[in-house]
Amino acid sequence: MKLRRRQRERLSLGIQYLVFIAIIAGVLFAADWDRLKDAFFRVDIIKSMFPTIITVALRNTILYTLGAFAFGLVFGTVLALMRLSRVAPYRWVATAYIELFRGLPALLVLFLVGYGIPIAFPEREIPGGVFGSIAIGLGLTAAAYMAETIRAGIQAVPKGQMEAARTLGMSHFTAMRTIVIPQAFRIVIPPLTNELILLTKDSSLAYVLGVTAQTIEVTKFGRDMLNDRVNATPLLVAGLAYLVITLPLSQVVRRLELRYAKAR
Amino acid sequence: MTTTPPRPAVEIRDLHKSFGPLEVLKGIDFEVGQGEVVCVIGPSGSGKSTLLRCVDLLEEPTAGRIWVNGVEMTDPDVEVDAVRRGIGMVFQSFNLFPHLTVLNNLTIAQRRVLRRGRAEAERIARDNLERVGLTDKADVFPAQLSGGQQQRAAIARSLSMEPKLMLFDEPTSALDPELVGDVLTVMRKLAEDGMTMMVVTHEMAFARDVADRVVFMDGGVVVEQGPPQEVLGAPRHERTRAFLSRVLDPTRVAQLGQPDQAPEPPEAPGLPADGRHTI
Questions:
Q1: Are B64 and B14 spatial neighbours (Cβ–Cβ below 8 Å)?
Q2: DSSP per-residue letters across B15-61
Q3: With contacts defined as CB-CB under 8 Å, which chain A residues touch B116?
């Protein structure tokens, strides 16, 4: 029997759906749900994690992330402007910094900041305690990445924008601040969002600084609970807690991009 | 120097400009009088845009001197931002600020540079939008405007700074043909209002009707200049004639691919060198 073209297409599509459903069903039936539930979804353990996971752990994760992002953004912008400077030594320093800190693991930098600075300046304290150390420690690495992103953004703004601003009598600095950089940031919103999401997860490195019950963040909280209850449920909850941050973040940024789309 | 006549808006003496090994301007002497409308024409690559950009110091001259309203732009210590406040520049690609509304495009420099208050800046901006026929476009973003509207907004942006001199760098070259007229009408009105204008253009009809003087450039020198009816109507130099016939009658295939048989560029018509510019 010879099938017509539409029949052939329908048959092919049907087979593809069947395969998909078969694989899902296979996994669902093959898995031992009772054991899985016992290891990863103990309702009593989930209940015991609330409200601390929100009021302390998630709150701290957000604070560390925002602190590191803010520090990285400001410092990264400075580095980007140094990379584009007319003063050669600024360019050298910025390039060396970026190459160095992009190459070092964030964990190592956090160690150096957390333990190195107190040794180097015994008289002084990092402002903000653990929060400050994490913001700076993670921010130093993030700044290196963001500097390159922001530099690319600045260079993506057409040269005519700076020229038009200058011919209106603006100084280079004013033109940069009011015309070029605002446009550059609109261009780099997507890659900077990426950086923010990466930082959210990097904030889990805070444990190397020895966090306390007050300064604990989501991953450490989950791991402590794991050891405490000898059950993996806390890890699942911790994972979901990260998604609570990152999924809405993506939505917000998508909105932001749409709003800026007409002003590009 | 007790009875000095008003200084010309633009004075250029022996201007040279090279980009690397390429010499684009080979000794330009040039003036624009106060209130005068000068159109600069010439083939692409003749250096006319570079000349215009040198006046606003968007290009750094290699040699020579430039005065704008009596201030030497080529003085290394010149307060270039201050001089530029008196000069409006209109670009081929408009260069409106895409992240600002049309109104804010017109107010930002007023507020940041002239330190005008918001209300005053907006009043002046709206006056100028009316001048260019864009009253109803104050609150939209540049991307929502047509090319012709964008260029008129750009002209209004320059006018909001109340310049004494307006420079136009091929203001209609990036426009669809049916949008050129609106922009030229705005420019013509500006000329009638007495604005000093230096216009690099390919619009021969505009040059003929509006310009007080037409300057023909080729190969980095001023070949010929004078009233439009002379330069456009009865050009003295072969290169001017060749250029005009190409522009006005572009389908004449006889010339296709043939190099110009023009002689070496003659000296630019001498401008009075009266020693006023020695400082």
A1: yes
A2: EEEEETTEEEEEEEEEEE-TT-EEEEE--TTSSHHHHHHHHTTSS--
A3: none
Answer yes or no: are the C-beta atoms of B156 and B103 closer than 8 Å.
no
Buried b / exposed e along A179-202 (16+ C-beta atoms within 10 A) = bbbebbbbbbeebbbebbbbbbeb
Closest CA to B151 of B179, B191, B121, B110: B179
The 10s digit of each residue's pLDDT in A197-230 is 999 999 999 888 888 888 889 999 999 999 998 8
Sheet holding B10-19, edge to edge: B22-32, B10-19, B63-68, B71-72
Q: Residue B225 forms beta bridges with which residues?
A: B215
Are A263 and B143 within 8 A, CB to CB? Answer: yes
For residue A203, give the amino acid letter: S
- Interface confidence, given as ipTM, is 0.86
Q: What angle do CA A136, A208, A121 make, to 5 degrees?
A: 50
Q: Which of B81, B99, B114 sits opposite A186 (nearest CB)?
A: B99
User: Does the distance separating the beta carbons of A164 and B91 come in below 8 Å?
Assistant: yes
The reported pTM is 0.82
| 3 state SS of B216 | strand
Q: Which of A158, A164, A182 sits opposite B99 (nearest CB)?
A: A182
pLDDT tens, residue by residue, A12-49? 999 999 999 999 999 999 988 888 888 889 999 999 98
